[in-house]
Amino acid sequence: RSRPGAFAFAAYRRRRQQEREAWRPGRRRRAGVVGASAATTGLLVGLSMGAWLGLRVALLVALLTGWRLRFRPSAAARVWRRQAAAQRRTAGMLATLEQDGCLVLHDVTLPGWPASLDHLVIGRTGVWVIKSWWPSWPAALRKGASPGRAHVGWDGMLRGLRGETAAVADALAGATTMPATTGTPASRAAS
């Protein structure tokens, strides 16, 4: 049984672990920053408004500073986690095809490919390569990018999907006469 999003989530976990290992050596420095900011703020507030308020403000400053300096995975790592979630959502939509007699495979690895295919559906109409993809162009538009430049992501995604489809067709070349077809939920929604 294949698990949707397994490859992307494993990539997220690897990336997060590497970032955490790089983040750990500065723990003492960050603890010193938390302590110094709490002590300084507590002392200043305590001298001007009273010790009872200074202690409470120092605690609050320590909590806020510690929260701000906590470990957070980078945006590049979080993309992998979102990709895994998108693949699980797509797998949920493809579950109805399994009930109709299609074979639905998730995270299919092809020989010689560094990544995996998101979904592969084998049915009466052929072999379908389906990619789970969430378009990032609305975010680019919010940041002031031109609409023409935002659609470059669609072209790159479709080019990659065509390459994956060609690889599946090559792998199945001698085994079957079924056609291999591309499919993306996002591209169908856009058209």
Structure commentary:
- The protein is of the alpha+beta class and about 190 residues long.
- The chain has eight helices and four strands; from the N terminus they run H-H-H-H-E-E-E-H-H-H-E-H.
- It has helices at about 5-25, 25-50, 50-70, 75-100, 135-140, 145-150, 150-170, 185-190, and strands spanning about 105-110, 115-125, 125-130, 180-185.
- A four-stranded mixed beta sheet has the order 1-2-3-4, with helices on both faces.
- A hairpin with a 2-residue loop joins strand 2 and strand 3.
- The radius of gyration is 25 Å and the shape is elongated.
- It starts with 5 loop residues before the first helix and ends with a helix.
- Mean pLDDT is about 80; it is low at about 135-140, about 145-150 and about 185-190.
Q: Helicity level, as a percent range?
A: 55-70%
Task: Profile the largest sheet.
Answer: 4 strands, mixed
Whole-angstrom Rg? 25 Å
First and last CA, distance: 33 Å
Strand order of the largest sheet: 1-2-3-4
Binned strand content? 5-15%
What is the string of helix and strand elements? HHHHEEEHHHEH
Alpha plus pi helix count:
8
Oligomer: single chain
The stretches of 5 or more residues where confidence is low (pLDDT under 50) are 137-142, 145-151, 186-191
- Overall pLDDT metric: 79
State the shape. elongated
Count of distinct strands: 4
Structural class: alpha+beta
